[in-house]
Automatic annotation (TrEMBL), chain A:
Pfam family, one: Fer4_20
Residue ranges occupied by any Dihydroprymidine dehydrogenase domain in the UniProt entry: 5-114
GO molecular function per UniProt: iron-sulfur cluster binding; oxidoreductase activity
SUPFAM superfamilies in UniProt: alpha-helical ferredoxin, Nucleotide-binding domain
Cited NCBIfam families: gltA
Domain FAD/NAD(P)-binding residue range list: 127-426
UniProt gene name: gltA
Protein name, as recorded: Glutamate synthase (NADPH), homotetrameric
From TrEMBL, chain B:
Keyword tags: 2Fe-2S, Iron, Iron-sulfur, Metal-binding
Keyword flag Heme: no
PROSITE patterns from the UniProt entry: FAD_FR (PS51384)
Full protein name: Dihydroorotate dehydrogenase
Binding site for [2Fe-2S] cluster: C219, C222, C234
Cofactor binding annotation: Binds 1 [2Fe-2S] cluster per subunit.
Amino acid sequence: MSGSVKDFSEVNRGLSEENAVFEALRCMNCVRPTCMKGCPVCIDIPAFIQQIAERDFAGAAATLKKDNMLPAICGRVCPQESQCEGACILAKKEKPVAIGALERFVADWERKHGMTLPEIAPPSGKRVAVVGSGPAGLTAAAELARLGHTVTVFESLHEAGGVLTYGIPNFRLPKDIVRAEIEQVKALGVEIRLNHLVGRSVSTDELLSYDAVFLGTGAGLPYFMDIEGENLNGVYSANEFLTRVNLMHADCFPEFDTPVKRGCRVVVVGGGNVAMDAARVARRLGGEVTLVYRRRKEDLPARAVEVANAVAEGVQFVCCANPVRVIGEKTVEGVECVQMEMCDLDESGRPKPSCIEGSNFVIEADVFIEAIGQGPNPLLISMLPHLDRARRGNVVVDDDGMTTIDGVYAGGDVATGAATVIWAMGSAKKAAAAIDRHLRRE
Amino acid sequence: MYLVEEATQLADRVFQMWITAPQVARHARAGQFLIIRLDETGERVPLTISAVRGDQVRIIFMAVGKTTEHLSSMKKGDAISDVVGPLGTPSEIERYGTVVVIGGGVGIASTPIIAREAKEAGNHVIGIIGARNKDFLILEDEMTEICDELFITTDDGSKGVHGFASTVLDELCKNQKLDCVWIVGPAIMMKVTSAVTRPYGVKTFVSLNPIMVDGTGMCGSCRVTVGGETKFACVDGPEFDAHQVDFDELMSRQRTYTDEEKASLEHYHHGGCGCCGGDH
Ligand SMILES: Cc1cc2nc3c(=O)[nH]c(=O)nc-3n(C[C@H](O)[C@H](O)[C@H](O)COP(=O)(O)OP(=O)(O)OC[C@H]3O[C@@H](n4cnc5c(N)ncnc54)[C@H](O)[C@@H]3O)c2cc1C
Ligand SMILES: Cc1cc2nc3c(=O)[nH]c(=O)nc-3n(C[C@H](O)[C@H](O)[C@H](O)COP(=O)(O)OP(=O)(O)OC[C@H]3O[C@@H](n4cnc5c(N)ncnc54)[C@H](O)[C@@H]3O)c2cc1C
Ligand code: SF4
Ligand code: FES
């Protein structure tokens, strides 16, 4: 077992000041910076990197914060390789500038040396309700507060942050960092009301009585495979497993009251970031972990670095296989899988997997975690009259994030389906700008 | 922080508590529940909303494990870290005709709010409250006041009818036309009692109590099988058509953490001092 799998402390330690400056000096400060095109919130990347090179770390932080209120989070969890870094001119020749690591460095530096707040416009007298405190809700709230509006965020859980808090584990995103960045949003004057499930604790009429509404309720509905034995004890959705550990601290049971089954043998099904997180958490709880994925290893949708971390931490991969049945009396005893063969490429260029008859095999297990995706949280959005939803249940929005209800906007996973932190933030920024125009027009 | 306004003991190990939680009180309806978390290290525990007055909601609970024992030691003026609700879909209350509202043990907690709404909807309301013996019986006065008729049962015959709620329900079914029945209690009691109305085809609701975490439809911990389909009790329920519920699966899933629950209670008694759960 490698050292890092014994605890939940952060795996990636970040850059030192010297290394950060050294890395920043590699940036060519391009006239037409291609890196920015790859960033969904259009951070002025060359500018903040030049400031690092000049050792003006506070200036770099201010530059970042103009476009991104959650830089320490993004610096850790953004898929930079397919965004800014993938688009960096140096990516073609050698290695791209490590933009993500630099973003993280600046944000961490600022947190240690004292945070400064961006300017806030004079009060507009308008009230905006934001539902959900994930990256989408936090970003919309911060933008709108800076523009002078009075913002109330409603969050159903007892802690803010959405997936940042309950989904992504500490070893990738320490919770004190999430809390610190949320404090920044609050410092802009945003009120966050925890323990308020909109649709139940707040009626839809109360919600619609605000001058504008932003829905950032995320994609929190876990999908199940619909196979035999799924309701046996020891079968978890990744959401439940991760929530028990990240939000409720089940890894510290019984100091914390919430338990979780620490399987000796854990099977995780799925291939995305969520599956990698579940597998790595299960590893830290002491289990032998096997990850079952229906396509080939090279098709895994998770970030390459997360797959590499999982491998390094001892997660076994069984690719081209899919669970068809959970075996057991009352509790899980094994997972029956079937081998898959790869057929024609589909629209996305990925092979279409299909079962090989009679190739069934069993993996012994006492815990089975399903990480096969999640859909928009239906509770509130199904209660709002005249709100158009698409086939997969997500809220239909135009380019500005406007829904089919006047004054109601949406962004993040509830509109796009499960996506990324930065896409949630990007869509929330656009919606916030549109909400501002809407409020000033009135 | 949510203030405890009143805390009293109703029966052996059964407690009643009024808590100020305006956002819950304002919207609470029959059949709904709330989730509390006592402090920083606490678990999220679901409890039925038993009554509402002004900004306050009432819970009634039995001290069975770590959280409910800790809760039972709290007094007026103490604060609970988190209360969220109302959660769940409200009871389907209409003008049915004659309805029966049945509570077993601590499940009686849920009955006044259902009986009252059913009464206000214009139903003839029959109540049945049952307990192991007369010392475990709660809310008798309140139910007497709300219901048109009230039956009491005790397993040992120390009060009311000697037997179970199902005994009385069986008699009622034989002698008159019932239009709707609610049953709230331990899973085994709901299973047995709802079997009584099945041959008569009487619409019967039970309030399921699987293990929950968030209570908002996000984790799937509370999934139950109803009519062969997987449902999330926290948002699709907790009330379901009794004759469609897979009770055996529910009971099995409720036992998932039996060992851990024991460990947690032991830790509470021997580990922490209990009065300062937050300092660990
Ligand atoms: C385990 C996991 C790992 C991930 N890893 C990465 C990663 O490495 N990099 C990356 O970029 N992305 C990652 N993602 C995806 C990313 O986290 C999401 O795309 C992003 O969080 C979406 O943000 P959001 O604000 O739309 O929704 P969420 O983060 O889901 O937040 C929604 C919030 O709304 C609240 N809410 C819902 N309904 C209501 C209501 N009715 N009333 C009040 N509150 C409500 C919820 O409690 C929640 O707090 C990961 C996701 C998961 C699950
Ligand atoms: C929608 C809903 C409404 C509920 N309403 C009430 C209520 O009004 N009053 C009340 O006393 N209880 C109610 N319960 C049950 C209550 O949530 C549990 O008793 C509570 O979680 C026990 O917490 P604990 O930490 O004290 O005990 P734990 O240590 O968690 O458990 C101790 C013992 O309690 C029993 N238990 C645990 N969880 C449940 C459960 N979900 N349902 C039934 N028994 C359980 C088991 O026998 C277990 O061995 C409700 C449950 C649900 C889902
Ligand atoms: S494209 Fe790369 S080299 Fe050019 S400015 Fe952006 S980070 Fe620097
Ligand atoms: S308790 Fe999590 S989905 Fe119901």
